[in-house]
Write a structure and sequence with these properties.
single chain, alpha+beta, 5-stranded mixed β-barrel, 18% helix, 37% strand
Protein backbone atom coordinates (compact mmCIF):
# COMPACT_ATOMS: atom_id res chain seq x y z
CA UNK A 1 0.00 0.00 0.00
CA UNK A 2 2.87 2.34 0.92
CA UNK A 3 4.69 1.49 -2.33
CA UNK A 4 1.57 2.34 -4.37
CA UNK A 5 1.24 5.71 -2.66
CA UNK A 6 4.91 6.55 -3.26
CA UNK A 7 4.56 5.56 -6.91
CA UNK A 8 1.46 7.74 -7.35
CA UNK A 9 3.19 10.69 -5.64
CA UNK A 10 6.24 10.35 -7.90
CA UNK A 11 4.01 10.28 -10.96
CA UNK A 12 2.28 13.43 -9.77
CA UNK A 13 5.62 15.19 -9.36
CA UNK A 14 6.72 14.17 -12.85
CA UNK A 15 3.43 15.39 -14.32
CA UNK A 16 3.78 18.78 -12.55
CA UNK A 17 7.40 19.13 -13.71
CA UNK A 18 6.42 18.34 -17.28
CA UNK A 19 3.60 20.90 -17.18
CA UNK A 20 5.92 23.55 -15.79
CA UNK A 21 8.49 22.86 -18.50
CA UNK A 22 5.83 23.12 -21.19
CA UNK A 23 4.62 26.43 -19.77
CA UNK A 24 8.17 27.85 -19.68
CA UNK A 25 8.71 26.74 -23.28
CA UNK A 26 5.49 28.47 -24.36
CA UNK A 27 6.50 31.68 -22.54
CA UNK A 28 9.91 31.58 -24.20
CA UNK A 29 8.20 31.67 -27.59
CA UNK A 30 6.16 34.80 -26.79
CA UNK A 31 7.45 38.34 -27.25
CA UNK A 32 7.42 40.32 -24.02
CA UNK A 33 4.85 43.12 -24.18
CA UNK A 34 7.13 45.21 -21.99
CA UNK A 35 9.83 44.99 -24.68
CA UNK A 36 7.33 46.14 -27.32
CA UNK A 37 6.35 49.17 -25.21
CA UNK A 38 10.01 49.96 -24.50
CA UNK A 39 10.84 49.82 -28.22
CA UNK A 40 8.03 52.29 -28.96
CA UNK A 41 9.18 54.69 -26.23
CA UNK A 42 12.82 54.54 -27.34
CA UNK A 43 11.79 55.22 -30.93
CA UNK A 44 9.87 58.35 -29.94
CA UNK A 45 12.72 59.51 -27.72
CA UNK A 46 15.14 59.19 -30.63
CA UNK A 47 12.82 60.97 -33.07
CA UNK A 48 12.24 63.88 -30.67
CA UNK A 49 15.83 63.98 -29.50
CA UNK A 50 14.21 64.00 -26.08
CA UNK A 51 16.90 62.37 -24.02
CA UNK A 52 17.15 65.39 -21.72
CA UNK A 53 15.32 65.70 -18.43
CA UNK A 54 11.85 67.21 -18.39
CA UNK A 55 10.39 64.99 -21.12
CA UNK A 56 8.28 61.97 -20.18
CA UNK A 57 7.28 59.23 -22.63
CA UNK A 58 4.86 56.46 -21.74
CA UNK A 59 3.53 53.79 -24.05
CA UNK A 60 -0.04 52.86 -23.22
CA UNK A 61 -0.69 49.48 -21.65
CA UNK A 62 -1.18 46.64 -24.13
CA UNK A 63 -3.86 43.99 -23.83
CA UNK A 64 -2.33 41.27 -21.62
CA UNK A 65 -4.14 38.64 -23.67
CA UNK A 66 -2.04 39.62 -26.69
CA UNK A 67 0.37 36.84 -27.75
CA UNK A 68 3.07 37.85 -30.23
CA UNK A 69 5.60 35.27 -31.41
CA UNK A 70 9.08 36.04 -30.10
CA UNK A 71 11.22 38.00 -32.55
CA UNK A 72 14.65 36.59 -33.28
CA UNK A 73 16.28 40.02 -33.41
CA UNK A 74 15.79 43.71 -32.67
CA UNK A 75 12.32 45.10 -33.15
CA UNK A 76 11.85 47.57 -36.01
CA UNK A 77 9.99 50.82 -35.31
CA UNK A 78 8.46 53.64 -37.31
CA UNK A 79 7.48 57.01 -35.82
CA UNK A 80 5.46 59.45 -37.98
CA UNK A 81 6.74 63.04 -38.03
CA UNK A 82 5.25 64.67 -34.92
CA UNK A 83 3.26 67.90 -35.00
CA UNK A 84 4.35 70.69 -32.67
CA UNK A 85 1.33 70.40 -30.38
CA UNK A 86 0.91 66.62 -30.58
CA UNK A 87 0.49 64.86 -27.22
CA UNK A 88 0.32 61.25 -28.45
CA UNK A 89 2.25 59.45 -31.19
CA UNK A 90 1.25 56.18 -32.81
CA UNK A 91 4.39 54.07 -33.22
CA UNK A 92 4.50 50.98 -35.41
CA UNK A 93 6.57 48.20 -33.83
CA UNK A 94 7.31 45.25 -36.10
CA UNK A 95 9.26 42.02 -36.39
CA UNK A 96 10.55 40.56 -39.65
CA UNK A 97 12.98 37.90 -38.40
CA UNK A 98 11.75 34.46 -37.39
CA UNK A 99 8.17 35.61 -37.65
CA UNK A 100 6.41 38.58 -39.18
CA UNK A 101 4.06 40.80 -37.19
CA UNK A 102 3.46 44.49 -36.55
CA UNK A 103 1.62 46.44 -33.88
CA UNK A 104 0.64 50.09 -33.45
CA UNK A 105 1.57 51.34 -29.98
CA UNK A 106 0.31 54.75 -28.73
CA UNK A 107 2.95 56.71 -26.81
CA UNK A 108 1.95 59.68 -24.64
CA UNK A 109 4.32 62.66 -24.57
CA UNK A 110 4.55 64.95 -21.54
CA UNK A 111 6.97 67.66 -20.50
CA UNK A 112 7.78 69.49 -17.27
CA UNK A 113 7.65 73.24 -17.84
CA UNK A 114 7.42 76.46 -15.79
CA UNK A 115 4.06 78.26 -15.74
CA UNK A 116 3.24 81.78 -14.54
CA UNK A 117 0.24 81.85 -12.18
CA UNK A 118 -1.57 85.04 -11.13
CA UNK A 119 -1.35 85.97 -7.45
CA UNK A 120 -4.47 88.13 -7.75
CA UNK A 121 -7.24 88.91 -10.22
CA UNK A 122 -6.45 91.37 -13.01
CA UNK A 123 -8.59 93.32 -15.43
CA UNK A 124 -8.38 93.88 -19.15
CA UNK A 125 -5.54 96.04 -20.44
CA UNK A 126 -3.33 95.67 -17.36
CA UNK A 127 0.46 95.42 -17.54
CA UNK A 128 1.82 92.69 -15.27
CA UNK A 129 4.92 92.93 -13.09
CA UNK A 130 7.00 90.08 -11.61
CA UNK A 131 5.28 90.54 -8.23
CA UNK A 132 1.90 89.85 -9.85
CA UNK A 133 2.77 86.23 -10.63
CA UNK A 134 4.44 83.19 -9.16
CA UNK A 135 6.27 80.47 -11.08
CA UNK A 136 4.98 76.91 -10.82
CA UNK A 137 6.41 73.77 -12.40
CA UNK A 138 3.79 71.58 -14.04
CA UNK A 139 3.72 68.40 -16.09
CA UNK A 140 1.93 69.28 -19.33
CA UNK A 141 0.81 67.14 -22.26
CA UNK A 142 3.01 67.53 -25.33
CA UNK A 143 6.25 69.43 -25.83
CA UNK A 144 4.80 72.87 -26.58
CA UNK A 145 3.23 74.76 -23.69
CA UNK A 146 0.23 77.07 -24.22
CA UNK A 147 1.23 78.93 -21.06
CA UNK A 148 3.57 81.83 -20.41
CA UNK A 149 6.58 80.45 -18.58
CA UNK A 150 9.07 83.31 -18.28
CA UNK A 151 8.90 86.57 -16.35
CA UNK A 152 10.56 88.41 -19.26
CA UNK A 153 7.63 87.45 -21.51
CA UNK A 154 5.48 89.93 -19.54
CA UNK A 155 7.50 92.89 -20.80
CA UNK A 156 5.56 95.23 -23.10
CA UNK A 157 2.47 93.05 -22.84
CA UNK A 158 -0.99 93.71 -21.39
CA UNK A 159 -3.92 91.46 -20.59
CA UNK A 160 -6.50 90.99 -23.32
CA UNK A 161 -9.28 90.18 -20.84
CA UNK A 162 -10.06 89.95 -17.13
CA UNK A 163 -8.35 86.95 -15.49
CA UNK A 164 -9.17 85.53 -12.03
CA UNK A 165 -6.59 84.90 -9.31
CA UNK A 166 -4.85 81.52 -9.43
CA UNK A 167 -5.12 81.23 -13.22
CA UNK A 168 -2.16 80.07 -15.27
CA UNK A 169 -1.38 82.71 -17.89
CA UNK A 170 -1.86 81.48 -21.43
CA UNK A 171 0.02 83.09 -24.30
CA UNK A 172 -3.22 84.24 -25.94
CA UNK A 173 -4.27 86.04 -22.72
CA UNK A 174 -1.58 88.68 -23.33
CA UNK A 175 -1.26 91.14 -26.16
CA UNK A 176 1.16 93.91 -27.11
CA UNK A 177 0.85 97.30 -25.44
CA UNK A 178 -1.24 99.72 -27.49
CA UNK A 179 0.81 102.62 -28.75
CA UNK A 180 -2.19 104.50 -30.13
CA UNK A 181 -5.84 104.21 -29.15
CA UNK A 182 -8.90 104.75 -31.28
CA UNK A 183 -10.18 108.32 -31.12
CA UNK A 184 -6.79 109.66 -30.04
CA UNK A 185 -5.32 112.84 -31.55
CA UNK A 186 -2.07 112.09 -33.36
CA UNK A 187 0.44 113.90 -35.56
CA UNK A 188 0.74 112.70 -39.14
CA UNK A 189 4.19 112.93 -40.67
CA UNK A 190 5.20 112.40 -44.29
CA UNK A 191 8.22 113.12 -46.50
CA UNK A 192 7.50 115.06 -49.70
CA UNK A 193 10.35 116.14 -51.99
CA UNK A 194 12.81 115.73 -49.16
CA UNK A 195 10.74 117.87 -46.82
CA UNK A 196 8.82 116.49 -43.84
CA UNK A 197 5.22 117.63 -43.70
CA UNK A 198 3.08 117.32 -40.58
CA UNK A 199 -0.63 117.51 -39.98
CA UNK A 200 -2.99 116.78 -37.07
CA UNK A 201 -4.97 113.56 -37.30
CA UNK A 202 -7.52 111.41 -35.52
CA UNK A 203 -6.79 107.69 -35.05
CA UNK A 204 -9.64 105.52 -36.32
CA UNK A 205 -8.39 102.30 -34.66
CA UNK A 206 -6.06 100.99 -31.99
CA UNK A 207 -2.47 100.28 -33.00
CA UNK A 208 0.62 98.70 -31.48
CA UNK A 209 4.19 99.71 -32.33
CA UNK A 210 4.91 99.49 -36.09
CA UNK A 211 1.32 98.45 -36.82
CA UNK A 212 -0.57 100.04 -39.68
CA UNK A 213 -3.47 102.26 -38.66
CA UNK A 214 -6.08 104.37 -40.44
CA UNK A 215 -6.08 108.05 -39.52
CA UNK A 216 -8.25 110.97 -40.58
CA UNK A 217 -6.30 114.08 -41.58
CA UNK A 218 -8.05 116.85 -39.64
CA UNK A 219 -6.93 119.51 -42.15
CA UNK A 220 -8.15 117.81 -45.33
CA UNK A 221 -10.62 115.38 -43.66
CA UNK A 222 -9.14 112.66 -45.87
CA UNK A 223 -8.53 109.20 -44.42
CA UNK A 224 -4.99 107.91 -44.83
CA UNK A 225 -3.10 104.87 -43.60
CA UNK A 226 0.23 104.97 -41.82
CA UNK A 227 2.47 103.18 -39.34
CA UNK A 228 2.38 103.88 -35.61
CA UNK A 229 5.79 105.25 -34.69
CA UNK A 230 5.23 106.65 -31.21
CA UNK A 231 2.46 107.23 -28.69
CA UNK A 232 1.20 110.17 -30.75
CA UNK A 233 2.92 109.90 -34.11
CA UNK A 234 1.94 108.12 -37.36
CA UNK A 235 4.26 107.94 -40.37
CA UNK A 236 2.52 108.17 -43.75
CA UNK A 237 4.19 107.24 -47.03
CA UNK A 238 2.92 108.81 -50.23
Amino acid sequence: MIVKRLTAFAALLLTAAHAGHAQDSASAGIQSLASVRAAAENAVRASLNAGTSGVELEATALDPRLRLPACGGALATFVPPPRANQTRLLVRVACSRNTVWSLNVPVDVRSTQPVLVLRHAVGRGEALAPLDVLVETRVLPGLVSPFVGRIEDLRNRVTRRAIPAGSALTADALGPVLLIKRGQRVMLAAMTAGIEVQAPGLALADATASQRVRVQNLNSLKIVEGVAESSDGVRVNF
